[in-house]
Design a protein that fits this description.
Length: 280
Protein backbone atom coordinates (compact mmCIF):
# COMPACT_ATOMS: atom_id res chain seq x y z
CA UNK A 1 0.00 0.00 0.00
CA UNK A 2 1.37 3.41 -0.97
CA UNK A 3 1.84 6.16 1.60
CA UNK A 4 -0.88 8.25 -0.05
CA UNK A 5 -3.38 5.39 0.11
CA UNK A 6 -2.50 4.64 3.74
CA UNK A 7 -3.03 8.30 4.66
CA UNK A 8 -6.44 8.27 2.98
CA UNK A 9 -7.43 5.06 4.78
CA UNK A 10 -6.33 6.32 8.20
CA UNK A 11 -8.18 9.62 7.68
CA UNK A 12 -11.36 7.74 6.64
CA UNK A 13 -11.25 5.22 9.49
CA UNK A 14 -10.54 7.92 12.06
CA UNK A 15 -13.76 9.72 11.09
CA UNK A 16 -16.18 6.79 10.83
CA UNK A 17 -15.52 5.34 14.31
CA UNK A 18 -15.98 1.74 13.20
CA UNK A 19 -13.92 -1.34 13.94
CA UNK A 20 -13.52 -3.88 11.15
CA UNK A 21 -11.00 -6.31 9.70
CA UNK A 22 -10.08 -3.59 7.20
CA UNK A 23 -9.42 -1.11 10.01
CA UNK A 24 -7.29 -3.60 11.94
CA UNK A 25 -5.27 -4.45 8.83
CA UNK A 26 -4.60 -0.80 7.99
CA UNK A 27 -3.72 0.04 11.59
CA UNK A 28 -1.30 -2.89 11.70
CA UNK A 29 0.45 -1.64 8.56
CA UNK A 30 0.50 1.88 9.99
CA UNK A 31 2.09 0.70 13.26
CA UNK A 32 4.72 -1.32 11.39
CA UNK A 33 5.84 1.82 9.53
CA UNK A 34 5.75 3.94 12.68
CA UNK A 35 7.82 1.34 14.51
CA UNK A 36 10.65 1.44 11.96
CA UNK A 37 10.68 5.21 11.55
CA UNK A 38 9.27 5.27 8.01
CA UNK A 39 6.56 7.67 9.18
CA UNK A 40 6.77 10.27 11.96
CA UNK A 41 4.37 12.44 13.95
CA UNK A 42 6.43 15.49 12.96
CA UNK A 43 9.34 16.07 10.61
CA UNK A 44 11.64 18.89 9.53
CA UNK A 45 10.17 21.21 6.91
CA UNK A 46 11.94 24.48 5.98
CA UNK A 47 8.70 25.77 4.41
CA UNK A 48 7.05 25.94 7.85
CA UNK A 49 7.90 28.97 10.07
CA UNK A 50 8.81 26.72 13.02
CA UNK A 51 10.92 24.47 10.80
CA UNK A 52 8.76 21.47 11.69
CA UNK A 53 5.59 20.07 10.14
CA UNK A 54 3.00 18.16 12.16
CA UNK A 55 1.74 15.03 10.42
CA UNK A 56 -1.77 15.08 11.84
CA UNK A 57 -2.70 11.86 10.07
CA UNK A 58 -0.01 10.02 12.05
CA UNK A 59 -1.44 11.23 15.33
CA UNK A 60 -4.89 10.20 14.11
CA UNK A 61 -3.49 6.75 13.32
CA UNK A 62 -2.17 6.39 16.86
CA UNK A 63 -5.51 7.42 18.35
CA UNK A 64 -7.24 5.00 15.99
CA UNK A 65 -4.97 2.19 17.20
CA UNK A 66 -5.99 2.97 20.79
CA UNK A 67 -9.65 2.98 19.77
CA UNK A 68 -9.62 -0.45 18.13
CA UNK A 69 -7.24 -1.99 20.66
CA UNK A 70 -8.50 -4.57 23.13
CA UNK A 71 -7.25 -4.72 26.71
CA UNK A 72 -5.04 -7.78 27.13
CA UNK A 73 -2.43 -9.16 29.52
CA UNK A 74 1.12 -8.56 28.29
CA UNK A 75 4.14 -10.42 29.66
CA UNK A 76 7.74 -9.35 29.10
CA UNK A 77 10.85 -11.51 28.87
CA UNK A 78 11.32 -11.34 32.65
CA UNK A 79 7.81 -12.58 33.31
CA UNK A 80 6.47 -9.22 34.48
CA UNK A 81 2.81 -8.72 33.61
CA UNK A 82 1.08 -5.62 32.29
CA UNK A 83 -2.37 -4.78 30.96
CA UNK A 84 -2.57 -2.65 27.84
CA UNK A 85 -4.23 -2.40 24.43
CA UNK A 86 -3.23 -5.33 22.21
CA UNK A 87 -2.15 -2.87 19.51
CA UNK A 88 0.66 -1.55 21.73
CA UNK A 89 2.80 -4.37 23.07
CA UNK A 90 6.37 -3.79 24.23
CA UNK A 91 8.62 -2.87 21.29
CA UNK A 92 10.51 -5.79 19.77
CA UNK A 93 14.25 -5.01 19.68
CA UNK A 94 17.08 -7.25 18.51
CA UNK A 95 20.88 -7.01 18.69
CA UNK A 96 20.91 -6.11 14.98
CA UNK A 97 19.19 -2.82 15.83
CA UNK A 98 22.37 -1.69 17.65
CA UNK A 99 20.38 -0.06 20.46
CA UNK A 100 21.73 -0.43 23.98
CA UNK A 101 19.05 -0.85 26.64
CA UNK A 102 20.64 -1.40 30.04
CA UNK A 103 18.71 -3.75 32.39
CA UNK A 104 16.62 -2.24 35.17
CA UNK A 105 13.01 -1.45 34.33
CA UNK A 106 13.06 0.43 31.01
CA UNK A 107 9.95 0.11 28.82
CA UNK A 108 9.67 1.04 25.15
CA UNK A 109 6.23 0.92 23.60
CA UNK A 110 5.52 -0.31 20.12
CA UNK A 111 5.32 2.60 17.70
CA UNK A 112 8.36 4.35 19.18
CA UNK A 113 11.39 4.57 16.89
CA UNK A 114 14.96 4.36 18.20
CA UNK A 115 17.87 4.87 15.81
CA UNK A 116 21.17 2.99 15.85
CA UNK A 117 23.52 3.91 18.65
CA UNK A 118 20.82 5.05 21.08
CA UNK A 119 21.69 4.29 24.72
CA UNK A 120 18.98 4.01 27.36
CA UNK A 121 19.86 3.84 31.05
CA UNK A 122 17.32 2.37 33.50
CA UNK A 123 14.60 2.96 34.30
CA UNK A 124 13.27 5.00 31.38
CA UNK A 125 10.10 5.07 29.30
CA UNK A 126 9.66 5.84 25.61
CA UNK A 127 6.04 6.20 24.50
CA UNK A 128 4.29 5.55 21.20
CA UNK A 129 5.05 7.94 18.35
CA UNK A 130 8.33 9.09 19.88
CA UNK A 131 11.37 9.34 17.60
CA UNK A 132 14.93 9.22 19.00
CA UNK A 133 17.83 9.98 16.67
CA UNK A 134 21.12 8.20 16.20
CA UNK A 135 23.68 8.31 19.01
CA UNK A 136 21.37 9.93 21.56
CA UNK A 137 21.54 9.00 25.24
CA UNK A 138 18.50 8.78 27.52
CA UNK A 139 19.80 8.70 31.07
CA UNK A 140 18.07 7.13 34.09
CA UNK A 141 14.47 8.07 34.96
CA UNK A 142 13.83 9.86 31.67
CA UNK A 143 10.49 10.03 29.89
CA UNK A 144 10.14 10.59 26.16
CA UNK A 145 6.42 11.24 25.78
CA UNK A 146 3.98 10.46 22.98
CA UNK A 147 5.15 11.80 19.59
CA UNK A 148 8.15 13.68 21.03
CA UNK A 149 10.95 14.03 18.48
CA UNK A 150 14.56 13.87 19.72
CA UNK A 151 17.43 14.46 17.32
CA UNK A 152 20.85 12.89 16.85
CA UNK A 153 23.66 12.93 19.43
CA UNK A 154 21.46 14.57 22.06
CA UNK A 155 21.91 13.91 25.76
CA UNK A 156 18.80 13.75 27.93
CA UNK A 157 20.05 13.66 31.52
CA UNK A 158 18.63 11.76 34.47
CA UNK A 159 15.19 12.63 35.79
CA UNK A 160 14.13 14.65 32.74
CA UNK A 161 10.63 14.54 31.30
CA UNK A 162 9.92 15.36 27.67
CA UNK A 163 6.16 15.69 27.59
CA UNK A 164 3.84 13.94 25.20
CA UNK A 165 1.52 15.82 22.84
CA UNK A 166 -0.91 13.41 21.23
CA UNK A 167 -4.04 15.58 21.34
CA UNK A 168 -5.18 17.80 19.79
CA UNK A 169 -3.98 16.11 16.61
CA UNK A 170 -2.85 19.39 15.06
CA UNK A 171 -0.65 20.37 18.00
CA UNK A 172 3.11 20.29 17.50
CA UNK A 173 4.84 17.72 19.75
CA UNK A 174 7.98 18.48 21.73
CA UNK A 175 11.00 18.85 19.44
CA UNK A 176 14.56 18.37 20.70
CA UNK A 177 16.95 18.91 17.79
CA UNK A 178 20.44 17.52 17.15
CA UNK A 179 23.25 17.79 19.72
CA UNK A 180 21.06 19.30 22.42
CA UNK A 181 22.13 18.81 26.03
CA UNK A 182 19.28 18.67 28.56
CA UNK A 183 20.43 18.68 32.19
CA UNK A 184 19.06 16.59 35.03
CA UNK A 185 15.53 16.97 36.43
CA UNK A 186 14.28 19.17 33.60
CA UNK A 187 10.78 19.26 32.18
CA UNK A 188 10.00 20.31 28.61
CA UNK A 189 6.32 20.45 27.68
CA UNK A 190 3.53 21.81 25.44
CA UNK A 191 5.05 21.73 21.97
CA UNK A 192 8.29 23.55 22.79
CA UNK A 193 11.06 23.41 20.18
CA UNK A 194 14.66 23.25 21.43
CA UNK A 195 16.89 24.12 18.48
CA UNK A 196 20.14 22.32 17.73
CA UNK A 197 23.12 22.54 20.10
CA UNK A 198 21.14 24.33 22.80
CA UNK A 199 21.92 23.54 26.43
CA UNK A 200 19.12 23.33 29.00
CA UNK A 201 20.60 23.62 32.49
CA UNK A 202 19.65 21.25 35.30
CA UNK A 203 16.29 21.94 36.89
CA UNK A 204 14.79 24.01 34.05
CA UNK A 205 11.05 23.74 33.46
CA UNK A 206 9.97 24.98 30.05
CA UNK A 207 6.35 25.02 28.90
CA UNK A 208 4.62 26.60 25.95
CA UNK A 209 3.38 29.42 28.16
CA UNK A 210 6.73 30.11 29.83
CA UNK A 211 8.55 33.21 28.52
CA UNK A 212 12.31 32.81 28.19
CA UNK A 213 14.36 35.91 28.98
CA UNK A 214 17.43 36.33 26.78
CA UNK A 215 20.06 38.30 28.69
CA UNK A 216 22.46 38.17 25.76
CA UNK A 217 20.18 39.64 23.09
CA UNK A 218 17.90 41.63 25.38
CA UNK A 219 14.70 40.01 24.18
CA UNK A 220 11.94 37.70 25.40
CA UNK A 221 11.09 34.48 23.59
CA UNK A 222 7.38 33.63 23.74
CA UNK A 223 4.86 31.36 22.15
CA UNK A 224 2.91 33.32 19.55
CA UNK A 225 -0.08 32.56 17.36
CA UNK A 226 1.04 29.97 14.83
CA UNK A 227 4.53 29.84 16.30
CA UNK A 228 5.58 27.61 19.22
CA UNK A 229 7.93 28.62 22.02
CA UNK A 230 11.42 28.11 20.61
CA UNK A 231 14.73 27.88 22.44
CA UNK A 232 17.24 29.40 19.97
CA UNK A 233 20.10 27.44 18.46
CA UNK A 234 23.09 27.22 20.79
CA UNK A 235 21.33 28.99 23.67
CA UNK A 236 22.40 28.10 27.21
CA UNK A 237 19.33 28.22 29.46
CA UNK A 238 19.37 28.14 33.27
CA UNK A 239 16.65 28.52 35.93
CA UNK A 240 16.07 32.13 36.95
CA UNK A 241 13.54 34.42 38.59
CA UNK A 242 11.77 37.69 37.83
CA UNK A 243 9.80 40.16 39.94
CA UNK A 244 6.08 40.27 39.14
CA UNK A 245 4.35 43.61 38.70
CA UNK A 246 2.18 45.12 41.38
CA UNK A 247 2.35 46.57 44.88
CA UNK A 248 1.41 43.29 46.55
CA UNK A 249 4.31 41.44 44.89
CA UNK A 250 6.73 44.18 45.87
CA UNK A 251 5.46 44.33 49.45
CA UNK A 252 5.83 40.58 49.90
CA UNK A 253 9.09 40.36 47.94
CA UNK A 254 7.66 37.78 45.58
CA UNK A 255 9.44 36.37 42.56
CA UNK A 256 8.39 34.06 39.76
CA UNK A 257 10.41 31.26 38.22
CA UNK A 258 11.54 31.83 34.66
CA UNK A 259 14.14 30.23 32.37
CA UNK A 260 16.92 32.62 31.37
CA UNK A 261 19.40 32.49 28.47
CA UNK A 262 22.74 33.47 30.01
CA UNK A 263 25.02 32.83 27.04
CA UNK A 264 25.29 31.10 23.68
CA UNK A 265 27.29 27.95 23.19
CA UNK A 266 31.05 28.36 22.79
CA UNK A 267 34.17 26.17 23.01
CA UNK A 268 34.06 26.18 26.81
CA UNK A 269 30.43 25.03 26.80
CA UNK A 270 31.25 22.33 24.25
CA UNK A 271 34.00 20.99 26.47
CA UNK A 272 31.62 20.83 29.44
CA UNK A 273 28.86 19.05 27.53
CA UNK A 274 30.84 16.63 25.36
CA UNK A 275 29.45 13.10 25.43
CA UNK A 276 31.82 10.43 26.69
CA UNK A 277 32.13 8.18 23.63
CA UNK A 278 33.83 5.45 25.66
CA UNK A 279 30.47 4.77 27.34
CA UNK A 280 28.93 3.93 23.97
Amino acid sequence: MSRELLIAEIEKLYEIHETSLEAESNVERFLELLDIGEIRAAEPDPAVPSGWRVNTWVKKGILLAFRIGKLVKVEDACGDQFFDKHTFPIKDISAEDQIRVVPGGTAIRRGAYLSRGVVIMPPSYVNVGAYVGEGTMLDSHTLVGSCAQVGERAHISAGTQIGGVLEPVGALPIIIEDEVMVGGNCGIYEGTIVKRRAVIGAGCIITGSTPIYDLVKGTIHRKEKGKPLTVPEGAVVVPGARTPAGEFAAKNKLSLYTPVIVKYRDEKTDAATVLEQALR
